[in-house]
Automatic annotation (TrEMBL):
This is C-type cytochrome. SUPFAM superfamilies: Cytochrome c (SSF46626). PROSITE patterns: CYTC. Keywords: Electron transport, Heme, Iron, Metal-binding, Signal, Transport. PANTHER family: CYTOCHROME C. Residues 26-126 form the Cytochrome c domain. Residues 1-25 form the signal peptide. It holds the Pfam family Cytochrom_C. InterPro entries: Cyt_c-like_dom, Cyt_c-like_dom_sf, Cyt_c_1A/1B. The keyword Transport applies.
Length: 132
């Protein structure tokens, strides 16, 4: 009986202790909701077109300032950036800090989870706007 209680006590301590947990997985559905912050200026998906900002199809892996038909700032065109997850995460936190002189007017997204979810949503779309 004593051994059973000791084991039960040890298990309850483990359940309450702050064990390291894996990082939260990206959630494309939550990212779609986060994209509502972007929707006023950007489109994504089949039939997306440039608005105030460029369409975002195939963003991950694309060179900054390279969407045909969009009038980028010199800062954006000449930044030399290739959009990967880390670069996008840094940019979306504070666009003007990452690319001084960009014409993107956006306060940024501070939440790491929201950025990860938004990235998951954006990654679903290939350059043609079709879901991968």
């Amino acid at each position: 009986m004593r051994a059973a209680l000791t084991s039960l006590f040890a298990l309850s301590l483990l359940a309450l202790s702050p064990l390291p947990r894996p990082a939260a997985a990206q959630d494309a559905e939550a990212g779609q909701r986060a994209f509502n912050k972007c929707r006023a200026c950007h489109q994504i998906g089949e039939g997306a077109r440039n608005l105030v900002g460029p369409e975002l199809n195939g963003l991950i892996g694309r060179h900054s300032g390279s969407v045909a038909g969009y009038s980028y700032s010199s800062a954006n065109k000449n930044s030399g950036l290739v959009w990967d997850e880390a670069t996008f995460a840094e940019y979306i936190k504070d666009p003007k800090a990452k690319i001084p002189g960009t014409k993107m007017i956006f306060a940024g997204i501070r939440s790491e989870k929201e950025i990860a979810d938004l990235t998951a949503f954006l990654k679903q779309f290939g350059p043609d706007g079709k879901k991968l």
